[in-house]
Structure formats: structure tokens, C-alpha cells
């Protein structure tokens, strides 16, 4: 036998402590690093050897390269000055939950391959129903249930597949090639919907992007008319996506009206609350969920705004059998007594991949560490910060709000028009002091500043605002 | 402002050290724990509170519940006595790489959202081409390139979508509903293929499961005949999966013959080497890869047998544009200068989800920590162990090998037939001393023992074999 030797427990302890220290230090200094990586394409790769090493290297050497090569190429999503896109926030208990999951290294594809992995997930997803005031039909003791997915993109694909099979009585899964299925979403819905419709073989052209109103919410009359027109044309409407908190501007589609239309036409209603859903931990932010008790599926991402590191997306269905029908497959090598008893959940039938990590640990750690009360404080603090920023913007005659500020996203622009705002964005991001992104609202270039980092305080928001103001003035002077 | 407080750096250090210690201890005691969780459905859930806590709890309390509630419900994939399915092995540097990824918490959906996340991944996947002797067309400096996926299931779906769009000139992605596309795989291919074909709207009935020979390898003449017959029927063959190392018995499809057929008929050739692919780190195990230079896509999972914790699946394509054409979508809020320059890779266009973790870190850690030489020793040691077990089985008149043992999987059975073998398996697994699974080969119930854990030594394999022998004798006596 040859002498292969893995890292032993003592070495793991030593390097593990060192990495924990490195991360603890990172959280303390991240604020001082440029938020958006100041690097040119290819610059990181150029520092890496072209070939893998023949002999193993010391762990200290690897960590030195993390510091020297990797860190300058990182855009710091965990910086308190990160205001771009939607957050992908995190917190120490989540990171430790992920570490435990990686360390245990279990596969949760079947109940039998690690019962605790499945049962903790079921329990935590039932907890989340209570935590967020979600409809009871999403609980595992109803006909529905929840599952953790990697992302809202995968969740929307699963919802679409379940609906596709229900609408075609399983024919499309078996035979493929069905023409005429039509899906609906607002023109502000996430791009993952169009991507999923393409993947599912329904055809991206068969997503009807329903016009939204000036507040970027779906117009339900336009939805009803389009469904009628498609039916009249002999097509088969089958699925509607309603968004609670759009990516561009955090607009909320009018769920009760959309739910009524779906019920009338017997369409699958999927509700995407990827970012905003986390706010429902606070009762005062639950009114948007009205109508959710009519939804067939629902998704929100604790990995966006609930202190749980990516990936952790909560996906619920009202009829779990519809989902399983679309995704189940049982080769001989996966047969086992527990599955055949019908008493257990095998989550592999609730998702695209077969394998799955023990993701529930990190969400369990987060909920227990902060408690309902801590999670509510976290959300409320960010909403307060966003409202404060909105007041400053309103008070500055050079700037204007571009959309309402229901939660933690502020959409705004300088009054000097698209080119100016684009230049302002690039200049501010290049400074490294903060990072924000843009969108287009009502045909106009719009800046988006989203507050979602646990370490972001009023000081960071104020500094960001001052940087924006000062940079705008400088740009004015440059003219 | 309210007083939300996240876990501070000192507390993170303290709990981080404690968790590292817990894991180090776990690796030392895992061998003494029952491999297959000895728990009844619902037993774990029954110990968890029905509601989430109102106030936060101490981290020590959470870890106490991990020990008390979770651990007894774990099937120990990292036990040296785990021989079931295929391994999902891991090693300390991988776990630390995952910790770093979780701790940095970056989103790698675009190059711009963390350049190092994209560039390290590209570099490491180019390293892997050299490490495994893969065709140069899979390198990023050719027209192809590699990407990390969560699983071979997702990789096969991506390959299928790229092929679907190439075969239909983009029509299916846009319009959907195409009839007549036909996919091919052997009857021993992984169930994820049929699942992916269903998801992609091609219809599970349109996968032709080509007969395998008595050694469970695809019969290329049967493949050619089926393609001819389908063409004659006006159907459109478009995609073939060849497996290097099937799930049931680690059989290898004859790649050169299959590649010739694919070339003749201009079919996309996907090669699935999920488990066995890792063996190619040793030049003596590369002969199965002959013909791979004709493949359009290739996948193997370092998270199975290359010391990297799940999820980490290497997926390569020869024509990256075909993949991007199938999966790309560009909403306004993701536009950025780097993407528009065309100089960078945006990996979101290479996968189903939008978001992505910094997975390359763990693979980089593993390759650097062990070096080519260490990884080779790791593979060779497991192959030697499997061959030793095969010799013991051959020497026992009560048992027989059920398939050749090319690498680390031993398929065998007791001579007393299906019912006896099934009982033997259940009895052995219930003992907690080891965990193995089964399959059916040539219509007969077959035991599978796969050696893939870094801590598995000759002693564990010998003990497993003795347990099997002793349990079989006991069963004989019971009759």
C-alpha cells in the first residue's frame, strides 16, 4: 500500500483556527477595502501558475496567496458599503452552519441517506411558515411543503415544470413537444422566468410580459385581457408569476387581483418574493402577502436579506404531489425501504439535481441564534436606513426619487439625465468607497441603492450619500 | 435606530474554534458511530420544537442540539466504513475552502461581481484539463471551457440544452414545442439523463435506452441501428450520452466507437464520468478517455472521489458559444462594462441558476494541498483496496463477483440468490458496522461495495468483508 496521507486532525485544528481568525479579521477590515474590485480582466489569472503543482504545498502558502492574489480580485459583498444589486448577506452563525454542513459531508438526496438532513429541513421550513406568516397550505402537514433550493431561478423552474405537467396531465414530461402553453409575468419580473421557460421547452416567446403601471406593478386588467386573447387564439394559458418586490425597483404586483384571475382560469400561480419575502418576519410588512393563500408556489431567499449565506432559497408548494410528479425518477440503485414505505420525504424529487447538501443547518443556526425578535430588528433597521436616505434625496433639489421606497431599496436619479447618472455611477463605483448598480425605470436610467448588510449603519449610508452628492458636484464642475 | 446586533468578531472566533474542534473530534470518532443512521421516520423531527424561538439562543445550546438531536440522524458519509452508492468524499482542505467561500460570501454570477471568483474558476478548470489529461479543446484558451456545476445532473441538463439549441438552430429555446428530437444513452446510464430530457421538454419517451452487453457497456452497433431507424422514421437524433463508469457497476461505454457514430450523424456527444473521471489523475487510468477528443461535453465530480466536498462538478464544453446561446439572458440590471467588452466570462450563462458561490476555492485548496502526486496516491490506494477485496470474494466459494473491478467498485453476490442477498444487505446495514447498497445486474440482485473514503484502510475493508461473511453464515444457520 502506498502512503497517501490526508490532513490530520491536529493540522485541521491549526489551519481551521487560522482561517477562522483570518475571517474574523476580514470582517473587521472589509470596510476599508475598495468595495468593487479594482482589477482588469485577466489580472488575477496572470498571477496564478499555469500548471497544478506536482507536490503538495503548505496550507500557509495557500492562505498567503488568498491574501495576495485572491483578495484584490474580490468585490466585497459583505462590506457595509455594498449597496449593489440585491444583497447576498450573511452572518457568523450562517457561516458556521455552512462549515458544519461541509464538515459532516452528508448527501441528503434521500431520507435514508441522512434522515436528519431531510427532517431538519422539513421542520425549519415549517418554522419559516410561522416566522413569515405564510399560508398553512405550505406546511408539510398539509398537502404541500417546503424545500431549500440553491436559488429563486431553480425554484421558478421547478414551479414551472410542476405546472407544465399538471396542465398537460404528464404528457409533456413523457412525450415533449407540446405547442401552445403560455406563461405570464409582468415586464418587471425577473429574467430567470424567461430563462426557465426556455429551459422547459415551452419557448421564451411564449412568456407574455404583461405591462406594468407607472409604479412598476403588474396591471391585472392587462393580464386578464391577454389570457382571454390567448384562449381565443386556441392557446393554453397555464402559469402566472407574480412578483412581490421586483428586482428593478421593489415593486409589488397586486396579488389578490392576480390570484382571482388565476383561480378563474385555473392557472398555476407562482409568487416570487426573492428579496422582499424576508421582510415578512415583521408583521407590519405582511400586507403584500394577501392573496398568497391562493398561490400554488412561493419562493423567497434567506440568502438575500435574512443573514444566511448563499445558497439558501425557500421554495413552497401547495400540492407537493404535482412537484414530485414532474421531477421524480427511481432507478434501482436508489430504491430503499424508507422510500417504499411512503412515510418519508425524498427531497431529490423536489429539485433539479439529485445530490443535495445539508443546507438546513445554516438556516436553523440563523433562526435560533437571532430568534424572531433579532430577525425583526435586523429588517426594521434596514428599512429605517432606506427611509432616511430617501428623505435626504427628497431634500436635495439636484436629485429625485424614481420609485416609492417600501423597504430597503432606494431608486433615484440626478436631475441631469441618463448620461450624467451613468457617469456618476461609474465614477462612484471606481472610487471604491461604495458600490451601487442601476436599472431603467419608465425609460430612464436610474440608480439603485439597496441596504442589506448587517454591518451597515447610518454612518455608512450617510457617507454613501455624501460621496454621491460630492461626485455629482465635481461632475458639474468638470463640464 | 433599534439595537440589532450580529455575532461580533470575538464571538465568531470563539464559536468558530469550538466548531473546528467539534469537527476534528468528529473525524476521530466517526469510525465508531453506526454508519447508517439507526432512526425511524419522524424521530428527529419529534425532538425539535414546533415553533422558532422568539429570542436568540446561545450558540453552545445550538451545538448541544447538534450533538444530541442531529448526530444520531446522520448517515456518516465520511466514515471509513461507508461503502454505499458512490462516495461523496471530502478532506480538510476542501472543508476549509468551503468555509472561506461562505465567509467571503461573494456572488460570482458575473465577472464584475467578483473577478477573482470567475478567474480562479477558469484557471483551476484549465489546471484540471492538464491534471486529468483531458482534450485541449476543453481549455478556456480554445473555443471551449470548463465551469463548476453543483452536480452531474445539472451538467447533463446544460449539455442537453446546448445540444437542443444547436440542433434546432435556437428555435426550441424561443418557440418551444418541437417534436421528434431523440436522445440516446445506454440502459445503464444515470437516471439524471431521463430526468433532464423530461425537464427540457423533449419527453422522457424520447430517450432511447440502448441495450448494453453482458459487461454493462453500451453496444455501439445497437446505437447505430437505432439512430438509422429513428432517422428513417423521420425523427431527429441529436444527442448521445456515453458513460465512463456507470452507477450500477462502473462499466465503461466504448467511447471511440460511439464518437465515430456521433461524428457520422453530427450528434452532440456528452460524456458522463461522474465517479470514474477522478481516476484519470493517474495516467494508467486514462485509456478509457480515448475518444474524448471528439466529445462536445464532459463531466466528472471531484465531490465524488477527489477529496472535495459536495458540491463540485467539473463540466466542460468544446464550443462554449453553444452553451451560452442556450442559457444566456441579459436584463438591464445586469449590464456592465466588463460584460459588454467581451473580454470576460460571465458564468451565469453557463448554468441553470443565476447566482453562484465561490466553489473554485475548495478545488484549488485540494489540488494545491495534495499536489498531483498526492491525488494519484489517493486514487491508487483505493483501487488497490478494491482489488484486494475482489480477490477475497473470488476465493470464497459462497460468493461471486458480478462484474469486473476496473477501479474502486466491487459488485458481488452470495450464491444463494436474490432474496438471500437482499436480506444480507439489510442485516449488514442494520448492524451499523458498515453501509453498502445494491443494484440489479443481468436481472440479478447485486451488492455494491465502493471504496472512496480517505480514511478507509485495508483494516476497514477486511472488517467489512468479515462482517459480510459472518452475517451470511448466520443467515444460513437461521434457515
Q: What would you say this structure looks like, in words?
A:
Two copies of one chain form a homodimer. With 479 residues, chain A is α/β, with parallel strands linked by helices. The first copy, chain A, folds into two domains: 106-357, Aspartate Aminotransferase, domain 2 (3-Layer(aba) Sandwich), CATH 3.40.640.10; 366-478, Aspartate Aminotransferase, domain 1 (Alpha-Beta Complex). Helices cover 43% and strands 12% of the residues of chain A. Chain A contains 15 helices and eleven strands. The first copy, chain A, has helices at 9-29, 59-70, 92-104, 115-131, 152-167, 171-175, 191-199, 220-232, 255-265, 302-305, 320-327, 337-341, 360-395, 418-431, 458-478, and strands at residues 145-149, 181-186, 207-210, 236-243, 268-272, 297-300, 313-317, 399-401, 409-414, 437-441, 444-450. Chain A has a seven-stranded mixed β-sheet with strand order 1-7-6-5-4-2-3, with helices on both faces. Chain A has a four-stranded antiparallel β-sheet with strand order 8-9-11-10. The termini of chain A are far apart. The mean pLDDT of chain A is 96.
Question: Any descriptors?
Answer:
alpha/beta, Aspartate Aminotransferase, domain 2, 11 strands, 479 residues, homodimer, seven-stranded mixed β-sheet, Aspartate Aminotransferase, domain 1, 43% helix, 2 domains, four-stranded antiparallel β-sheet, globular
